[in-house]
Amino acid sequence: MSPLRLSTILMSATLATAMLSGAAVSAQNVAPANRNTVVLQGELQMLENRLRRQQFQQQQQQFRAQDRVVVPQRPDVPQMAPTCQLRRSGSRFISVCR
What we know:
The chain has about 100 residues and is an alpha+beta fold.
C-alpha cells in the first residue's frame, strides 16, 4: 500500500473517531429540566412504533384471511371436439382421431 493511501486512511479514521466521540459527548449533555421531556419523547416514540407494528400485523392477518376465503374460479377453457374419421382398411374400419 502506498504511503499516501495509508496516511489518507489513517486521517479518515482519526476524523471519524473524533466526530463520533464528539457526538457521544454532546448527546450526554442534557439539562436536568429537559431530561424528562427527552424520556417522554422516547417513550412516546416506542409506543407509536409498537402501535404501528400491531396495526401492520393485524392488516397482514386480514389479508391472509381474505386470501384463504377467496377461491379462484377455474378458467373457462374451450375444448375441441375430437375429429375422428372412420377409414376402411381391408375388411375393417379404423378410427383415426387427430
